């Protein structure tokens, strides 16, 4: 076997291992999230299942695992890079005294306890140091998630825990750096520890100065000069690798270099783009690391009594050390037990410690398994313990809350030195108003602890919503201030008062394609409305609320019910329905602009009738523009269609005190031209799509043609000239019959008449009026056509064979019907074939527009099912099959 063959086998094995690992990681994470367990636990369990302990589908030993292990190391590097980029040095500087004391105690006690336990069990000094170091970290992500779910982020306890966890990460990484250096040196002594500590601080100082001063400038230079869009992200990755390599050269943990690179990149102007691009890469590599931890786990070793005993002892130290850290909050009114529980979960950083210990040979399989058990136990058990304790403290806080006081003359809130202060004790009924008042001030100030504590006390109180609150919401939307929305989240008001918005923000945070770290707190459609104000005018409050609904509900499966549910909370039901209609009609207008040539008068009038008023049409048009950037041609098409709709809505002869919309106005104008009661009654019940397709004079003439209704098998025909030369209008009145349109089309084709346009109207009593516009040098004979129509209806339909005709459907372009475009090579009987296909698919045709260019037909039909609904996917597929000549039914259906 050649070397090339071996390499090919190794590559094939690597690809197979990656396939198994990534699939297992995704399944494990999904299952964990659904049962409210951190996703990292599911990924580790997935690794155990596919690893040597269970299925042995993937291993990390020998040639099988070298490449996977390297990919896992890249995952660790990207994980620490993300941690660094997400860390706000400004917020770290604001960590209060209580949080810092909690962090220090929460690191010192577990470290000392773990190290002493290792010594007591006869482990080496280096192993004991690693055991202690692995117990120091706190997972800020898990704790923050639980506090957020319980609407308790505003509590004193949550603020202390989250501040301490951030400080914990930094201290823990320094400890890891020192321990790795000591371990690699092979000797543990005071001099080694002090020297390593000095080197670590020197590295942090040097990389911090270089990173915070030079890295943003380098990235700015690359961004300005590079022609490739990916150059900035590649430069950021190069900087990350350089920092990691520098740490490795200094005999420090390479991940501390990645962490410092993350801090530096997070301060650059390009951090949003970098975080988004590298986040996509991280979503592939990071799960490999966590699955690798599970693969390395030996279940048999973990089941040994000695390992279980060690895990139990370390768990006690891990829990007690973090619970005792709560004494750092002495002097505050916070619940010490809740703080201690919040500090317990170890999560990702603890797993990194364990993985490094195993890879460096410091931890054996038994110790690694025991440490993994401790980390997983702390990660799984903390959320339910937090939920129980938060409930207890919340109930106690409500019982002990002081009685409300009268409102101060200057109001409940004021801003002093960048802090939003609370004055007095407001009643719980002021929760929503005060939340919005504080949110309005948050652009230049932060809430005081007293204000956050007041929100925390009332976090479970029922909320009432008023018209004033809606006005405050609109003002916040117009301000475009993400920090205001963050305050509403932290205060717990958003989740209770506007759950649809809170859920949308959760979905956005899970979207790795959003490059804006504050993207979840921004409402881009409302922002674009303001950007368009210079050309479309200042948006009304209703239009701003419509933009909010469009933004919140755009990713939901049922956007219209979502919009109505949200708006029902904000405005009276009638207004909610009206504003929700703006959202749906804005999407309708955007969809209708996809066909730049589709400005048929009937479609424009149908849209105008549906929109009903110039004001509603204008609001729908403005929101359609704000829904997203359009290509130039599509923007021009939308502008033109809106102009035509406004012209139709404001047309002088279509107005009148008795007319409520365009169809009613045109119907009324035609009725005034009639004296025959039967014809007037026939027109009263004519379909709106048919009424909109003809002038009042034509409607009056056609009503006289069909009334009284012809006998079965009898066809009446009238022919009149059109303004365009060689064009004739043929009105056909008869009773409904199988495949009627196809039969009529067959006769017109036989007479050599080129069909340009068609409209169809059907009445409940079976009356049908088909109107065709045809091209012919000579005037068609109404008598001959009527006779041939009657003859055709008495014999089976003979549809011609056609090739290459393709049907495309659009349910969004029109308010009432489905638009169907048929494209293909021009050939004899093409329209007849389409009509026969519609008949076989049991589709009702309302209008038809026929066009041919350069030997290609482009016919447009408005169609529905037999009860007037838009077509579903099954009906569309029947049309496609029928057009291809396949059999889709035993008999032809009614054609209208």
Give the helices and strands, then pairings.
Layout: H1 3-34, H2 39-50, H3 62-86, H4 89-93, H5 97-120, H6 125-134, H7 140-149, H8 156-185, H9 190-213, H10 215-225, H11 231-249, H12 254-266, H13 271-295, H14 299-302, H15 305-325, H16 336-342, H17 347-359, H18 365-400, E1 413-416, E2 419-422, H19 431-441, E3 446-447, H20 449-457, H21 467-479, H22 482-490, H23 493-497, H24 499-509, H25 524-531, H26 533-536, H27 541-553, H28 559-570, H29 573-592, H30 601-611, H31 614-626, H32 632-649, H33 662-671, H34 677-684, H35 688-691, H36 696-706, E4 716-721, E5 727-735, H37 740-750, E6 754-762, E7 767-775, H38 782-793, E8 806-810, E9 818-825, H39 830-840, E10 844-849, E11 852-853, E12 856-864, H40 873-883
Parallel strand pairs: 2-3
Antiparallel strand pairs: 1-2, 4-5, 5-7, 6-7, 6-10, 8-9, 9-12, 10-12, 11-12
Describe this structure in words.
The protein is of the alpha+beta class and 896 residues long. It is built from 40 helices and twelve strands. Strands 4, 5, 6, 7, 8, 9, 10, 11 and 12 form a nine-stranded antiparallel β-sheet that branches. Strands 1-2-3 form a three-stranded mixed β-sheet.
Keywords:
896 residues, alpha+beta, 9-stranded antiparallel sheet, disordered N terminus
Give the % helix: 55-70%
Shape: elongated
- Report the structural category: alpha+beta
Poorly predicted ranges (pLDDT <50, ≥5 residues)? Answer: 1-9, 652-659, 890-896
Radius of gyration: 36 Å
List the total number of helices: 40
Question: What can be said about the biggest beta sheet?
Answer: 9 strands, antiparallel
N-to-C terminal Cα separation, in Å?
A: 74 Å
What is the number of E strands?
12
* Mean pLDDT reading: 82
State which percent range the strand residues make up.
5-15%
